[in-house]
Structures are given as structure tokens and as C-alpha cells.
Specification:
Blueprint: H1 2-15, E1 24-29, H2 31-47, E2 52-56, H3 60-69, E3 74-77, H4 83-93, E4 98-106, E5 108-111, E6 119-121, H5 122-129, E7 147-151, H6 156-164, E8 176-178, H7 181-190, E9 194-198, E10 207-208, E11 210-213, E12 216-218, H8 222-227, E13 233-240, H9 246-256, H10 258-267
Parallel strand pairs: 1-2, 1-3, 6-11, 7-8, 7-9
Antiparallel strand pairs: 3-13, 4-13, 5-9, 5-10, 11-12
């Protein structure tokens, strides 16, 4: 009986429009953005304690799916929304969604601190991740097999790398998928012959590779990412079904305010303003 009652309660809660849950804002999606989202929520709730902001990860695809099925008010995404996702929103809500860039990031490739390789071209990164190059010796490094770490396919960073580095090709079958950027960084820090990728804010205890472009090695620095000079610069987004209003708008306004953008810098990403 308890289980049936619990299911009924959950069903009723899900059936209610999110606006019915006064004083609550739900934010879900990108694991790249989850720490940033949580810091924003913490600072926002200090200023407006009557409003509760719940932030959870799971990946950009998970957040956008939750936006489509009505279980989150704001989806965090480290990639642009796909056309198919827009059409699902249109079919259910007669809207293709609202996109709000809230921070900037540079997708960074990590190697172990003991790896002598310091810079690679985008083409060399592609060759590693599609499986054409399998030994560091081919790239001026030690004679050792390359251990590839990747994100799961629900990750916006996974999609960004597939689109912008792999040119749409599939990842090598040998790539080991891990559930979050923090897990990738941890694995790379322990495996001397490995390579992984993720957001610039997570690059602790490992070495960031520079991107070779022409005669220049471009580092994922704040200035290079803000100006777009770093080849793998990207925006980080909030997506909503419609124009923000109520508590969600107040929260987003805070994230985009000078105080909110200062949080972006503290976390390790880069302001949009």
C-alpha cells in the first residue's frame, strides 16, 4: 500500500507544472557545469533563502531530455542543442527552447605530468581518438601504448569532441568511457601513458596539452579562450522551454550578473561578460 501511495504522490508531483512548485528551481545536465551550477546555487540561496535551487548532473543529453519531459526547469549543456532535441520541444511545448550562454570554456586534452609531449595538432588528437595512432612514439613521446579515456555518450563534451576534433567519426573501440570529467582527470593522473579530455576548470594534477596551429602552440589560457584564439573554445549554456520568468529568471539574472560571473572565474571557467 505504501509503495502504491508513494507512486501516486510522485505521479502527481510530475504531473504538476514546474511553476506550481513555488520557490523551487530545478537545474540539471552537464557534468562539466555541475560544480559551477552548484556554486551559483549556493551563492544565490544565501541572498534569497526563500528560493531553493537544486542542481544535478548526468550529462548535457540527460539535462536536455529532462527539459523535454518536463522534469527540469533549466538544462545545463556544454554543447549546442541538437535539431532533433528542438523538434521534441516543439512537439510538446510549441517552442524550440531558449538558449542562454552563461560561461565560456575550452575543451582541454590532458596527459600525465610525466609525459614529455606538450602540444599536439587537432589532427593528431583526432588520429589518437579514432585509433589511427596508438603509440606515443608516433608523436615524439616514449615507446608506449596510448591509453585513451573518454566521456560517456550522454556528455556534451563527448559530442563536442566528436564534432570538432573527430570530424564526426566514431571513437576508437579501445577508448575507455568514464562518468564525469573528474573521473577522467583522476585516471590520467594515475596512468602515465594515458590521455583524456574535459573542461579547463578540472585540470588539476595533470598536464594540459597545448594545441599546435601553424607555427604556434596555443594554451587553453583565460585570454585565449575568451578571445576564441584557442581552437577548442566553447560556450556553456542554460536551456529553457520558454523565456525565463519567476524564480528561474531571478536565478539566471544572478548567474549573469557581475557577482555570478565572478563565481565563474573562481570555479575555473571564463565569464561571458
Amino acid at each position: 500500500m505504501k509503495a502504491i501511495f508513494g507512486s501516486l504522490v510522485i505521479g502527481l508531483m510530475l504531473a504538476l507544472p514546474l511553476s506550481a512548485h513555488a520557490g523551487n528551481v530545478t537545474v540539471k545536465g552537464s557534468d562539466t557545469m555541475v560544480i559551477l551550477g552548484q556554486r551559483w546555487a549556493e551563492e544565490f540561496m544565501k541572498k534569497t533563502p526563500a528560493t531553493k535551487v537544486q542542481v544535478t548532473g548526468g550529462g548535457s543529453g540527460v539535462g536536455l531530455a529532462a527539459l523535454q519531459n518536463g522534469t527540469t526547469e533549466i538544462a545545463m549543456s556544454s554543447r549546442e542543442i541538437k535539431d532533433a532535441e528542438k523538434q521534441k520541444l516543439r512537439a510538446r511545448y510549441n517552442s524550440t527552447g531558449v538558449e542562454i550562454p552563461v560561461a565560456k570554456d575550452g575543451v582541454t586534452f590532458y596527459v600525465n605530468e610525466g609525459n614529455p609531449v606538450t602540444a599536439l595538432t587537432v589532427e593528431q588528437l583526432r588520429s589518437i581518438y579514432v585509433g589511427d595512432v596508438t603509440n606515443w612514439k608516433q608523436l615524439g613521446g616514449p615507446d608506449a601504448p596510448i591509453i585513451i579515456y573518454s566521456r560517456e555518450n550522454s556528455s556534451g563534451t563527448y559530442v563536442f569532441v566528436k564534432d570538432h576534433v573527430l570530424d564526426g567519426e566514431d571513437y576508437a573501440a579501445s577508448a575507455q568511457t568514464l562518468p564525469g570529467t573528474a573521473a577522467v582527470v583522476n585516471a590520467v593522473s594515475k596512468e602515465k601513458n594515458s590521455i583524456g579530455y574535459g573542461g579547463a576548470a578540472y585540470a588539476k594534477g595533470i598536464k594540459e596539452l597545448k594545441i599546435k596551429k601553424g607555427n604556434e602552440d596555443i594554451a587553453p589560457t583565460a585570454e585565449n579562450i575568451k578571445t576564441g584564439k584557442y581552437p577548442l573554445s566553447r560556450d556553456l549554456y542554460f536551456y529553457l522551454r520558454n523565456k525565463p520568468s519567476g524564480d528561474a529568471k531571478t536565478f539566471i539574472d544572478f548567474a549573469l550578473s557581475p557577482e555570478g560571473q565572478a563565481v565563474v572565474t573562481k570555479v575555473g571557467y571564463f565569464p561571458v561578460k
